[in-house]
Amino acid sequence: MITTVRIGLIAVFVALGLFFTFVSATGVIRLPDVFSRAHTASQADTLGAGFALAAVALTIGWGPTAVKTVLLLFFIFVTNPTAAHAIARAAYEEGVEPWTKGDERR
Per the UniProt record, which residue ranges are transmembrane (predicted)? Predict the structure, then answer.
């Protein structure tokens, strides 16, 4: 019973990771400016990597490798949004104009 639940959770986490990674990739391709792209990349990609690493940690089980996986998950949760913020701030400081509703699609 426990093994079945564990395998089910692993499958759900992998599916959610793939979904959020796909949403992130689609957003980066389809959105019009660097600010929107940084937003979707930081949020959806962080969730995609988070769910995938959670699936890896569940697959490995308890041990030193699982602890390293959880630490990697924490590292991604901290650095990915920080990097997206730095990119958006650099674009703003360089004078990149954000896309608005009246602008033509680029």
Answer: 49-78
